[in-house]
């Protein structure tokens, strides 16, 4: 059954709440618009997204190191980066209904909501300001970082001085960023507080175009490898006239969400803009000295993605509604590497020695995998519950398996619903093979 975009998003939002993936923020107080909290299964999914990125970008590569810089930084950073003056969206207010719109969302000169007359577009800075210390004046002002990238540029010299990196090399980090968006929405797609995974890859200027193209391909491949439908994801180059103030070229990885093609990640050639700016404003030399002693200002290629957007894309892409034996089955067909719970261990009947053995198997898997034990209700209901949170395998313990020699369990595959028998002692290794 096909559903239009709005309906399928509604189903996904409902599933996320019902099954402990994502809850509306501050809900018992009536919520706070466009804030969301990751529940017990959501945090596991999101952690898997982050770990898979970290593994791919930092762990597997000899040329990239990690970093974890602060959310609060010296406000001079935002002066140097251009965010204080340039990180703005045009804000238009309707004179009649007072509703506010982002300039890009308004076509023509009537209010999209009430057809009333619109005021002039004003520049609205998206950074959240805050104050350090007890006095809220201009001297105490600072900002919650709107991107993690600046923490990397500001530590470029520290990393050069304290490690053995040589060009080309990268510094990567995952962390929270904050933007006072004029029109947040579409569930976790655009929120005020979100997480980014950002890589700043420093290169010799003459090699920048090649690295820019390579990183775009590489990043697209990562999403497809983790299961996104290749027909619903593509690269889209920005027009030169639409480029952000720091960029020489940008290509987005876009995914076809139920609400339309939207950016998952941007790959930018930032040139030497950031290092030159920070050198100028800080007065510290940020040049790199090559093996011949020549000074170079590296160019930066930046793949910058949103953890929450990636997580949402994996959720949306995995969501299926099927009919099985006349009943509706909802499944999250997540790649096993992303699945919050790797396997559920279920006693077929609530009787001894089945229950004890099932608990024993579950405990033995627990120090390596997130697994879950469940003995409540019919086995059919338990399967459905695991299907809805995307658990790829259900390990069922029954009398028949315990009476055989060696003892066996059945493993049910989430997607095919087929079951096969496997020797109990081999379950851990079998599962590891499926997840790594
Ligand atoms: P958009 O055009 O959608 O506002 P952007 O081009 O401003 O995004 P970047 O500044 O390139 O975004 O940020 C890098 C990544 O951070 C984006 O690709 C996105 O995945 C994520 N991101 C940016 N803003 C938000 C937000 N408000 N909520 C969730 N994720 C975000």
Task: Please describe what this structure looks like.
The protein folds into 2 domains: 9-72 and 131-315, Bira Bifunctional Protein, Domain 2 (BirA Bifunctional Protein, domain 2); 341-435, 3-Layer(aba) Sandwich (Rossmann fold). Helices cover 31% and strands 29% of the residues. The chain has 13 helices and 23 strands. Strand 17 and strand 18 form a beta hairpin. The protein is globular, with a radius of gyration of 25 Å. Bound molecules: adenosine-5'-triphosphate.
Can I get a quick summary?
With 436 residues, this protein is of the alpha+beta class. The protein folds into 2 domains: 9-72 and 131-315, BirA Bifunctional Protein, domain 2 (2-Layer Sandwich), CATH 3.30.930; 341-435, Anticodon-binding domain (Rossmann fold), CATH 3.40.50.
Bound molecules: adenosine-5'-triphosphate
Strand order of the largest sheet: 3-9-10-16-13-12-11
CATH superfamily of the largest domain: Bira Bifunctional Protein, Domain 2
Shape: globular
CATH architecture of the largest domain: 2-Layer Sandwich
């Amino acid at each position: 059954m096909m559903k239009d975009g709005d309906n399928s998003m509604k189903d996904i939002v409902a599933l996320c709440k019902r099954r402990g993936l994502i809850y509306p923020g501050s809900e018992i107080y009536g919520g706070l618009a466009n804030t969301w909290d990751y529940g017990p299964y959501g945090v596991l999914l999101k952690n898997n997204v982050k770990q898979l990125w970290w593994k791919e970008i930092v762990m597997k590569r000899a040329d990239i190191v990690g970093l974890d810089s602060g959310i609060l930084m010296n406000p001079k950073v935002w002066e140097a980066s251009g965010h204080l003056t340039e990180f703005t969206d045009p804000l238009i207010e309707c004179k009649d209904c007072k509703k506010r719109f982002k300039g890009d969302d308004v076509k023509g000169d009537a209010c999209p909501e009430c057809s009333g007359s619109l005021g002039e577009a004003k520049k609205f800075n998206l950074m959240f300001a805050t104050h350090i210390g007890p006095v809220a004046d201009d001297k105490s002002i600072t900002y919650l970082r709107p991107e993690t990238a600046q923490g990397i540029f500001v530590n470029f010299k520290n990393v050069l001085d304290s490690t053995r990196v040589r060009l080309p090399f990268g510094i990567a980090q995952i962390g929270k960023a904050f933007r006072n968006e004029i029109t947040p929405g579409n569930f976790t797609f655009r929120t005020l507080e979100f997480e980014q995974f950002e890589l700043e890859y420093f290169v010799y200027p003459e090699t920048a175009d090649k690295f820019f193209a390579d990183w775009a391909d590489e990043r697209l491949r990562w999403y497809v490898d983790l299961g996104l439908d290749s027909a619903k994801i593509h690269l889209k180059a920005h027009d030169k006239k639409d480029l952000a103030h720091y960029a020489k070229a940008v290509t987005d990885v876009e995914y076809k969400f139920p609400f339309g093609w939207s950016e998952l990640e941007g790959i930018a050639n930032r040139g030497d803009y950031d290092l030159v700016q920070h050198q100028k404003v800080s007065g510290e030399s940020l040049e790199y000295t090559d093996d011949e002693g020549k000074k170079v200002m590296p160019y930066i290629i930046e793949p910058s993605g949103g953890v929450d957007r990636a997580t949402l894309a994996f959720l949306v892409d995995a969501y299926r509604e099927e009919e099985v034996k006349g009943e509706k089955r909802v499944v999250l067909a997540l790649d096993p590497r992303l699945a919050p719970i790797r396997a559920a261990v279920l006693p077929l009947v609530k009787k001894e020695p089945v229950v004890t053995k099932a608990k024993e198997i579950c405990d033995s898997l627990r120090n390596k995998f997130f697994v879950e034990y469940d003995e409540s209700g019919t086995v059919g209901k338990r399967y459905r519950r695991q299907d809805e949170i995307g658990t790829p395998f259900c390990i069922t313990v029954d009398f028949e398996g315990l009476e055989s020699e060696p003892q066996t369990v059945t493993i049910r595959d989430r997607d095919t619903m087929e079951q096969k028998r496997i020797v109990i002692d081999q379950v851990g290794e079998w599962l590891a093979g499926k997840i790594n």
